[in-house]
Design brief:
Endonuclease, Chain A, elongated, four-stranded mixed sheet, 251 residues, 8 helices
């Protein structure tokens, strides 16, 4: 009686024999053994093994080649007008091809319009951040980016290039962006390093919150940093611009 309460007997789907099951497995199990399960699900494509599927596919291909079985495709002799499935596929493919064509081959007028819009968005962003002077229409502390022939190295701005020219004129050796310092969540690369005095130099026209965090972390690590801001740079410019021939002025 206790066994009947705990479980019950169930009929196997394959051999029709009754087998005892506990209460927890009554809903899940339907066969008495693995052999019955395999015989029952032999022709089920979802449960078939990969080897059996390969064998069946090879046999089917051979029979089609020999002419024993006729292969009829589902879309044979059907068009967009007759079959709605083919119509949907054709519409989807045509849409994707059209989108790719528009993205790749833009006309001159549309490409110019997109460029103007993107430039105006970038300009407005710079003005809101304070990086761009609205009246003069130039970036504060920035100018031509590239390699300077007189210095022999790349510079990110005219301010950096001009300060390097002052050091060169004075005969002070320096290194341009020689090292990057990695902190917890911030990476910082100072503009210059003067090895004779062991001082790092940062030339900043505009100081935002991110750059302030970087500089504070760098100073906290115990390094000496000379920050050249807008006032100091203009003071140096007023003295050196007529003495150095290669001096660049931002207009």
């Amino acid at each position: 009686m206790n066994n009947i309460k705990k479980g019950s007997y169930k009929k196997c789907l394959n051999c029709n024999n009754f087998f005892y099951l506990p209460k927890s497995l009554l809903d899940s199990r339907k066969f008495c053994c693995k052999k019955c399960w395999y015989i029952y699900n032999k022709h089920n494509p979802r449960i078939q093994s990969t080897t059996e599927r390969k064998k069946r596919s090879i046999a089917r291909i051979k029979s089609i080649k020999n002419g024993r079985v006729k292969f009829n495709s589902w879309n044979k002799g059907q068009t967009k007008e007759t079959n709605p499935i083919i119509r949907e596929i054709a519409e989807k493919t045509s849409l994707t091809l059209l989108i790719n064509h528009v993205q790749r081959g833009l006309t001159k007028q549309t490409s110019q319009m997109i460029k103007k819009r993107s430039e105006s968005k970038e300009r407005n962003k710079k003005i809101s951040q304070g990086r761009l002077n609205f009246l003069k229409n130039h970036e504060i502390g920035h100018g031509r980016v590239g390699k300077r022939e007189d210095l022999g190295h790349y510079c990110r701005s005219t301010w950096e290039a001009n300060f390097c020219r002052i050091l060169k004129q004075k005969g002070i050796k320096y290194k341009y962006e020689p090292k990057t310092f990695y902190f917890k969540s911030i990476n910082y690369t100072p503009d210059l390093f003067i090895p004779s005095i062991n001082i790092w130099v940062e030339i900043k026209g505009y100081m935002d919150e991110k750059s302030k965090q970087k500089i504070n972390r760098f100073i906290e690590s115990g390094k000496q940093l000379l920050i050249i801001e807008e006032k100091l740079y203009h003071y140096l410019q007023s003295y050196w611009k007529n003495k150095i021939k290669e001096w660049e002025i931002v207009t």
